């Protein structure tokens, strides 16, 4: 593996480490602008500081850890890899995910996970009501009991395979007490979807691979820049009154 790289003094720079591929570890300090590590494909990236909009957008592989607050659209269109935020997330974190694992270890903005079709979104310390549960095979994980009394939602215990995969992923993302954190989470589902076929064990968490309920790969991400697609999606939501 390449020698670790340290970068300091970020001051609102846009597009830092965008399209970075291969192996290696990069640690940064300061304030990143928009599109931090967009299209990340392999490396391990850590930011000690805050970031703007679209951090980790269309992430393909690797790990991304941000120890600070971020703007909207964190890891929107995420297709693979693992990411963790240790600060406040803006609106639409994890929107339109198709694969991978996004862990939000702090307060969460509105409409988290909206439009997800695959992957796993884990909220370890939400400060409000749970977001809308996505349809399978996408997975939304929340602390046990946090959805108590929410109409039409059920909390489903994780399988042993899911617990093992999640604990391993949380370990890689630097979570303290990863097994205990994993054991405190449940999968949140719409009541009439509980009987739907589950995702292949471990696939969205461990490999970042999204499959349909028939086992076929999910369709590819639409063409166009992620930020353009996100803005179009946000306008559509606004038109619907969401």
What is this structure's SSE topology?
Elements: E1 5-13, E2 25-32, E3 41-48, E4 61-66, E5 82-85, E6 98-104, E7 118-123, E8 139-143, E9 153-156, H1 160-172, H2 178-183, E10 185-190, H3 203-207, H4 226-240
Parallel strand pairs: 1-2, 2-3, 3-4, 4-5, 5-6, 6-7, 7-8
Antiparallel strand pairs: 8-10, 9-10
Q: Can you tell me about this structure?
A:
With 242 residues, the protein is α/β, with parallel strands linked by helices. The chain has a single domain, classed as Pectate Lyase C-like (3 Solenoid). 16% of the residues lie in helices and 26% in strands. It contains four helices and ten strands. The protein has helices at residues 160-172, 178-183, 203-207, 226-240, and strands spanning 5-13, 25-32, 41-48, 61-66, 82-85, 98-104, 118-123, 139-143, 153-156, 185-190. Strands 1-2-3-4-5-6-7-8-10-9 form a ten-stranded mixed β-sheet. It is globular, with a radius of gyration of 17 Å. Residues 199-223 have low confidence and may be disordered.
């Amino acid at each position: 593996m390449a020698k670790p790289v340290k970068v300091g003094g970020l001051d609102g720079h846009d597009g830092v480490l965008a399209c970075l591929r291969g192996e290696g570890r990069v640690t940064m300090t300061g304030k990143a602008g928009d599109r931090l590590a967009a299209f990340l494909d392999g490396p391990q990236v850590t930011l000690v500081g805050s970031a703007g909009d679209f951090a980790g957008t269309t992430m393909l592989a690797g790990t991304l850890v941000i120890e600070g607050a971020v703007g909207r659209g964190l890891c929107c269109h995420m297709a693979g890899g693992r990411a963790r935020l240790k600060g406040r997330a803006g609106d639409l974190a994890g929107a339109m995910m198709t694969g991978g694992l996004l862990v939000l270890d702090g307060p969460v903005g509105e409409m988290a996970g909206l439009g997800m079709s695959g992957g796993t979104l884990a909220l370890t310390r939400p400060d409000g009501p749970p977001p809308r549960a996505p349809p399978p095979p996408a997975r939304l994980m929340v602390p046990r009991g946090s959805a108590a009394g929410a109409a039409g939602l059920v909390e489903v215990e994780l399988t042993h395979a899911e617990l093992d995969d999640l604990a391993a992923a949380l370990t890689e993302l630097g979570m303290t007490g990863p097994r205990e954190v994993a054991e405190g989470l449940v999968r949140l589902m719409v009541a009439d979807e509980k009987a739907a076929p589950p995702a292949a064990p471990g696939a969205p968490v461990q490999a970042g691979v999204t499959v349909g309920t028939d086992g076929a790969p999910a369709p590819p991400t639409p063409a166009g820049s992620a930020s353009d697609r996100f803005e179009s999606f946000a306008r559509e939501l606004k038109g619907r009154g969401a």
